[in-house]
Amino acid sequence: MVQTRRSSHSxxxxxxxxxxxxxxxxxxxxxxxxxxxxxxxxxxxxxxxEPVERRTPTGWWLxxxxxxxxxxxxxxxxxxxxxxxxxxxxxxxxxxxxxDITNFVFWIGIGHAGTLISAILxxxxxxxxxxxxxxxxxxxxxxxxxxxxxxxxxxxxxxxxYWMLPIPNQMSVWPNFRSPLLWDVFAVSIYGTxxxxxxxxxxxxxxxxxxxxxxxxxxxxVYGFLxxxxxxxxxxxxxxxxxYLVLAALATxxxxxxxxxxxxDFAVSLLPGWHTTVFPPYFVAGAIFSGFAMVVTxxxxxxxxxxxxxxxxxxxxxxxxKIMLVTGxxxxxxxxxxxxxxxxxxxxxxxxxxxxxxxGPYAWAYWIMVSCNVLSPQVFWFKKARTSILILFVMSxxxxxxxxxxxxxxxxxxLHRDFLPSAxxxxxxxxxxxxxxxxxxxxxxxxxxxxVRFFPLVATAEIKTVLPQADPHxxxxxxxxxxxx
Amino acid sequence: xxxxxxxxxxxxxxxILAEFATPAALYHACERVRDAGFTRWDAxxxxxxxxxxxxxxxxxxxxPWIVLGxxxxxxxxxxxxxxxxxxSAYPLVISGxxxxxxxxxxxxxxxxxxxFGALGAIVGMLGLNKLPMHHHPLFRSKVFERVxxxxxxxxxxxxxPRFDPATTRKLLESLGARSVELLES
Lengths: 485, 185
Known about the structure:
heterodimer; B: alpha+beta
């Protein structure tokens, strides 16, 4: 029932997409059908547990080996950086921050969609989140790991990076709690910790599923150890659900605060182009925008590779595309607001910075940003685009290129022409800048490959709750059957 | 490796385990077991069945109070740390700001409150649920392996005052149990 006619699916290609789009509404139940092909509980367990239990497929190695190679590249680049210093990057005197902080803001932004899906959509009772929340939460954790690399290595003397923490050090100096840079240390590290806790909480029942299906002693021991002895007791579920709700309520303001604080790293400074009050909401919208694009990239691959087309359906992509349309338009509105504010301020430095941003030496980066982030998501006004896997996949990559350039534009164009023309410069990345950026993708995809290999990538227990027969008042009847055409 | 040893009373039997076919059957059976006055019993499901806590007569979880307490503790600690560093241990004028500049402390107070609250939620949940508990008499049952897949159970423990191996088994069978099993301690 679950793996029906996979080969015919791929052959039919776009026609499948069309027929699945027709299924988006279930006229009998009068409510959205989130899971297609009416699987029973056991069929869900089977399809989710299969990638964890079967032999490592060749396709997995095809993703893992290149990712791991890029991770090795990151290791080489960072080792050379530690040996030689940050002079190996293309930084110069007006441009003291470039790829390092661009990558940091990019990755931390990616993570935000995971928390939005797992916490904010949970509070809003958006049941469609159950198909994608587990992998989105994992994506958050790995994105935060990538993000944490960059502020750590960009300090140059990494061996004294602990000076950022409020612990006594050899100079008897304490960090400055009044600085957004220190707020950032707290916000990002706490965000990472809470994301791990939230993810693990959701994993406990599913690890117990893998434990109970384990055939070998080693698997039973490892998954049994991680499942903490979970036995699905309602008295346990009762506290568990309470913990989940409270964590969602805590993670919601946390995720909004994290990118707000990241934006204050810039907004609290007095630099034209950074010193603006629109930054916190603008950064949060951009973070969710890019994060959803990354979720779409990963989910398109996962749903095809693990045959989850009936669990991660076109309806889910339709919803995610709508969120990308909204947040992309919010980002575009913020770009316009920045220009209006600079003109309305009457401050010549502000006006110059923004004119220089759009028409100066970095105009190429600015217009890549605008076309990727503002113009291209407008295709999502059309349902055909929102339910076409090919368009979604291409757009998700285009959007993430655009969002990386957004951070590059904000950071580098604001810095490269200082107040006095004698302090003007131009930043050109070196091969080590590029190696660190590309290598961070290696870290991200290596972790994600390991995740899909060893952990259930769909929240099995949660997805069973959105099946119609999970309702204690449900009565079986033939009219509820939805056929896959 | 049990981190917390299960503290279960001594006796020849742990209790009775009954399997039900659907969430609906389990739900109605739970209502009847609750109304029969049992106290040491539980339902086991692969996912949280909506409304089952009510059918079992469970009280609200005290967990939010633990989280509130932990969150306030975190906020207080973060405030004290920042006040102590800037106003007491290491007073330093930065940009002409006062030593005790409390509005600038708000972000870190908030973040640390969230951290402590989240730790309270996880540790509190594990504590209330007496987890980790890697050994339990229920795990000896073969059918119970499906509790994390697609099976629904009620277990009644033998030290419940109303427990009687024969009549309790009859009760569960009359409620539509698919199979009933007496578990050893």
